[in-house]
Amino acid sequence: MAPIIEQLPNEPLFDHLLHSFTAHPRHVLVHDPKNGVEADCSQLLTDILYMRHQIFQALPASSFDARRRIDPENPYVIVLAPGNYDYIVAALSTLACGGAFAPISSTLAPEEACHLLETTNASCMLVSPQFEAQGSQIARYCAARNKSVAIIPIAVNNAPAAPRPLVRIDPAMTLDPTSPGVLIFTSGTTGPPKGVVRPRRVWYNSPPCFPSNHVVLAFRSPHWVGVAMRLIWQVLAGTRAEVIENDPRVIWESFCTARVSRFSAPPRTYAQLMKYFQEHIDCLPVEQRSRYVKGVRALQRVTVSGGVTWPTVMGFWRELLGRPLRNIYSSTEVTAAIETTEDSDPNLERCIGKPCRGVQVKLSDGDHGEILLKSATMFTHYLGNEAATRAVLDEEGYYKSGDFGHLVGDQYVIDGRSSTDFIPYRGLRVPVHEVEARLIELPYISEAYVVPASFHYMRQVAAVIRPQTSKAAVSLSQIRVDLQDKLQRYKLPTLLRTLHDNEQVPETTTGKPLRRKMEEKYFSLPEEPPLPAGVEFCDTDVGTEETPRRAWDWGGMM
């Protein structure tokens, strides 16, 4: 019997993958005991080939060319999966078809998911068994609106074909390295998110050795850029991912094993881990406590990205680790761009370090100004929005980050956003003037200002208001209820300070409000409760709201 031959694309990604996986077939890449997954290189290659076949079967032949490459005019495949082995298989099987995968949040309403399917012109969606119910709801919603979408269940732990196929690179199956390789959705100004297209060559940087012998934790959703990219890069490096719950207790127990060698998370996770340590570990007998400390000190690389980390949190981790956290400055358009190094001054506030390998950085005014970024793997465009793409690139093709910074020696220091018109909140952008306009429209408010503030270890949307009458009792909960039909949920204020009689807000001599002064005056808050008298807070953990969720309440990101 003639052997079965499976052909993979002729590009650095699959050349590296096939060579490495063939050389180390039993190296375990993903350990997920809860879902019964212990996937080595051989199993992952089997699952990639199986899922690629499922995609070929589900889509019409017209979706592919003679070499079974997906139509470059419609390359996108939506992926609905947690950040585990299902996601990895879905992403790599899509790439093996010559397509680009687009991970979406599992909390999207059917209306939101259908809009993203239409925006990308995707004709199929790969769905994890964990999200089977959501996938069915989305399919029914699309069908009712004459949108055809093939729902393809992500299948893993598949048995290899018999006889076992020969897997080779097809010399003729070449792909343009600048063509789409992944589509990441990120917060827009209003309504649906915008799609950031990254090129295929973002997957071409082969690691110096395989396997890396590192162990990492996988516990976050892959619709965030850092997770979406890192999970695939780690597989290509032969890094072992241990899939766990996104829970401080579980993360600390994983540290305690001393197996984990690398850890990366956003600032809020580090704050939650700090709080858990202080409340549950620090009080343990010395011998028990030392197991956790030794485990976390065994981490070889500990990085934080996705926002500014509070000084108390940075101080806690510096003391616990015996060294500072590595701070990574990143964006959806460029991913990791600037990183603190061993020679970065830990006492230099808001230091973000030096450019990452392959990234060019310049400041608009020489040694200070807007931070501009450029790399060979940066985004190529915003999907369906040429004007927005042109607006964020300078004449040399550098991406305008919207952040200001300056140089101290050879280290970059971030000064803040170039615009005070938006507040970053949970990875979204809250337009200040829109929220102020809706506040002023309320009949019981005569004056309103919106400023950023920090509390609960994250950025908050803070409102300063003056009631129409001094006797009026205005509460934050009342404001949120009255604005829920006028603003998306993520734009609703989470902190409130009511002005007293004759109390004046800081302003210039011409009457322009000084928002930074307002933040300092009214919202210089501790990181944890209790709050000072006169300030109200609403904890808005997604999914805890009493009122029904509407489309785009969380900007298509949560």
TrEMBL record:
Molecular-function GO terms, alphabetical: medium-chain fatty acid-CoA ligase activity
InterPro entries referenced in this protein's UniProt entry, alphabetically: AMP-bd_C_sf (IPR045851), AMP-binding_CS (IPR020845), AMP-dep_synth/lig_dom (IPR000873), ANL_N_sf (IPR042099)
Pfam families, alphabetized: AMP-binding
GO terms, biological process: fatty acid metabolic process
Domain AMP-dependent synthetase/ligase: 75-383
Family under the similarity heading: Belongs to the ATP-dependent AMP-binding enzyme family.
Protein name per the record: AMP-dependent synthetase/ligase domain-containing protein
